Amino acid sequence: MHQAQAFIAMPFDQKFYTVYKTIRAACESLNIKVIRIDEVWAREDIYKQIEEEILNSDFVITDFTGDRMLEVPNPNVVHEAAFARTKKKYLILMAQDHKCLPFDWRTRPAIIYQMTPEGLSYLEERLVLGIKALMEKDDFGRDYEEAAAHSFVTGYPPQMPQYMPVGYAPTTMNYVPPSNNTSLSEIEAHLISKQAQPVAVNSNHSSRLPKGFNKKKDRFVCRIDSSEMIHIPATEFTMGFEDEEPEHQVVLSEYLIDKYPVTNQQFAKFMESGGYQFQGFWSEAGWQWRVNNSILQPAFWNDEKFNSPDYPVVGVSWYEAMAYAAWAGKHLPTEAQWELAAKGSGTNQFPWGDEEPCNKKANYRSQFKQLTPVQQFEDAPSEYGCIDMAGNAWEWCYDWYDDDYYENSPRENPLGPGYSSDEEKVCRGGAWTYDVDTLKVYYRFFGIITLRDKSSGFRCARIL
Question: What pLDDT, in 10s, does the model give residues 363-388?
Fold first, then answer.
């Protein structure tokens, strides 16, 4: 016997998760199966699968909240609903404001709800009534067998999306990156141009901030992902120590680095802004990997143990971390940039100094047994003021990994050995699952470039 199915088209923002649970509860109370596209693994092309799932569903529930509202991105709901409408699928419309509905749909019946306990209770009640009314239709549930016979609409969305800007008008189907975004190739070219160039360490000159970055008094902010960044002036320091030898002098141009690791809340903005769809944020190899493996979100995105908004995002490969960085107008820190930000200009063993780690300074094995908020260790900053650089999550660096790189690395702005035949990238800082020795500021580790581990995260930097 066929079990009825509903396709859910709605924002993926975490703050909408309670709304999704309300929709799911209403459907499950009537033995309706629900499908939301981020919960199924795309077999080939994600847009083709969206069409297929809509065609295989008996009706579609659409939450338009976000369209024409800058603070609530909602990139694809209109297109999914329009496709369902052209295929004559039953639709249940929802929104938190009737103005979010597409202009020519605003006179149609819809459930207007509020994100409050009372509002969600009302939403569930109205959904149950609406679904029951649909189930009483003579043709309800009869078209699922015909779904395979339908041809897929080519070009849905109208073209392979390059980027869906936040707050786009639903009648506009052009995917154009906003002017404050920079492609990965442009950012890498700027970073590489600094390698091995003479650096004026004692200069009082301060570089002009790139577009998208502001200075407010002593605070530096990246506008795109709202991250606070730390300014590190041109500096010469001693890199390496003990097991990570040889110690050698490195000179770095001035740069900015994130005060905190990138959080789930920040990464959600990247996803909602079309970060997994715009190829310009990705390297050629990274884009091919993403497409071949149907990667559309971090590995643990729907796992409550890892997806708290203020936890560092984990389960991201080096490719995904670099794509996020490019979206934000930044890059992953080089290994040298990361070590200077953690170590400072002296000989600290840990970001906060030489005092042994404890559960008031870092999250490492046997301390918390889970991720912790990135702000939890505000009282254990590095010399420059960076937080959470020891433990919690490993942080991807820009460089390929090579055990022997320190023996012949350039003195100015080293970028790593160029390529690793084992496809290993540098990771720094230790993690919640690793021992205390990995927290040392000079400890070197590595990960395969496609690794999406529960302890792999990142922060970003921007050379000036």
Answer: 998 789 999 999 999 999 999 999 99
CA 452/CA 227 separation, integer angstroms? 23
CA–CA distance, 242 with 351 (Å, rounded to integer):
17
Domain boundary among 149, 175, 193: 149
pLDDT at 279: 84
In this prediction, residue 165 carries a pLDDT of: 30
CA dist 335 and 415 (Å) reads 7
- The CATH number of the domain holding residue 239 is 3.90.1580.10
DSSP state string for 27-87: HHTTT-EEEEGGGS--SS-HHHHHHHHHHTSSEEEEE-TTTT-TTS---SHHHHHHHHHHT
Residue 232 host element (H or E): strand 227-232
Verify that 142 and 198 share a domain, yes or no: no
Residue ranges, the chain, pLDDT below 70: 1-2, 39-46, 67-76, 103-104, 107, 141-182, 203-206
The answer to whether residues 137 and 191 belong to one domain is no
Distances in Å between the alpha carbon of 389 and those of 11, 262, 326, 437, 450? 32, 12, 21, 13, 22
Determine the structural domain holding residue 101 and report its residue range. 5-149
In whole angstroms, what is the distance from residue 404 CA to residue 406 CA? 6
Instruction: Give the span between the Cα atoms of 330 and 328, in whole angstroms.
Output: 6
Sign of CA dihedral 423, 430, 228, 254: negative
Q: Please tell me the distance from the alpha carbon of residue 458 to that of residue 395, in angstroms, as a whole number.
A: 4
Same domain, 230 and 330: yes
Distance of alpha carbon 153 from alpha carbon 47, whole angstroms? 10
* CATH assignment at residue 123: 3.40.50.10140
Query: 361: alpha, beta or left, given left = phi > 0 and alpha = psi -120 to 50?
Result: alpha
Question: How far is 437 from 247, CA to CA, in rounded Å?
Answer: 18
Looking at the fold, whether 124 and 205 belong to one and the same domain comes out as no
At 203 the pLDDT is 66
Please report the pLDDT score of residue 73 as a whole number.
52
Between the CA of residue 34 and those of 84, 224, 242, what are the distances in Å? 15, 34, 56
Q: Is residue 392 part of a domain?
A: yes
The helix-helix angle for 318-327 and 284-292 (nearest 10°) equals 120
Give CA separation, 82 vs 9, 145, 153, 362, in Å.
11, 21, 11, 49
**Cα distance between residue 137 and residue 53, in whole Å:** 21
